[in-house]
Amino acid sequence: MAKKLSRRMRELLEKVEDRPYDPQEALALLKETATAKFEETAEAHIRLGIDPKYSDQQLRTTVSFPNGTGQSVRVAVIARGEKVNEATNAGADVAGSEELIQEIQNGRMDFDIVIATPDMMPQVAKLGRVLGPRGLMPSPKGGTVTTELEAAIQEFKAGKQEFRADRAGIVHVMFGKASFSTEDLLVNLKALQETIDRNRPSGAKGKYWRSIYVAASMGPAIEIDIAALRDYKLPEAA
């Protein structure tokens, strides 16, 4: 049975035309349709021409948003010895060794990112069933398996975000707050587009980008003209 749309959503849908929008126009419309009673996030949903069941068509990487995400990020670090103190001093919200692994197995989840040092990965592997479905499993590709803890913690707290294509080849990424300026959202979205293009899987054949939609977290989907986003040139830094 189809879910009945609220009056608010019906009114917002009337504002969105069934066509690809210029990126700036789309993001201005995203802001206009963010009418919930809380601060909504800005989301991008990108369908790619890949089949992630094949290893050479998988996409998992990180993007650094120039304007951050507007969210505070809680970082957990799994390390050993002096590296635990290094992580704490660098701003990690949670840091520990085997005892932290046990706590996570027992249900502890008060973090948004998990970073691990390479020497801890054999023990971290047992958390695959817990962290994997949440997209939190540390990986070298995601920049979350590293000995450079201070740099990694600071980057993720400043707006670096890991993402991956789901089973259907769709990427879902939160790229800021609806309260950001249109220009700041566009700069972040451009960084995401360039990251996806730069990390095109070797097995991806034919048309890589199928569609891109943006939306406020409680708003309607707005299609963006992919070519226009690719052609957009970032303003020169002052």
From TrEMBL:
A single Gene Ontology CC term: large ribosomal subunit
Matching CDD domains: Ribosomal_L1
Single GO biological process annotation from the record: translation
A GO term, aspect molecular function: tRNA binding
Keywords, comma-separated and alphabetical: Repressor, Ribonucleoprotein, Ribosomal protein, RNA-binding, rRNA-binding, Translation regulation, tRNA-binding
Gene3D superfamilies found in the cross-reference section: 3.30.190.20, 3.40.50.790
Entries under InterPro entries matching the protein: Ribosom_uL1_bac-type (IPR005878), Ribosomal_uL1 (IPR002143), Ribosomal_uL1-like (IPR023674), Ribosomal_uL1/biogenesis (IPR028364), Ribosomal_uL1_3-a/b-sand (IPR016095), Ribosomal_uL1_CS (IPR023673)
Pfam families, per the entry: Ribosomal_L1
SUPFAM superfamilies per record: Ribosomal protein L1
PROSITE patterns according to UniProt: RIBOSOMAL_L1 (PS01199)
Family: Belongs to the universal ribosomal protein uL1 family.
Record-linked HAMAP family: Ribosomal_uL1_B (MF_01318_B)
PANTHER family: 54S RIBOSOMAL PROTEIN L1, MITOCHONDRIAL, LARGE RIBOSOMAL SUBUNIT PROTEIN UL1M
Protein's recorded name: Large ribosomal subunit protein uL1
Phylogenetic placement of the source organism: Bacteria, Bacillati, Cyanobacteriota, Cyanophyceae, Oscillatoriophycideae
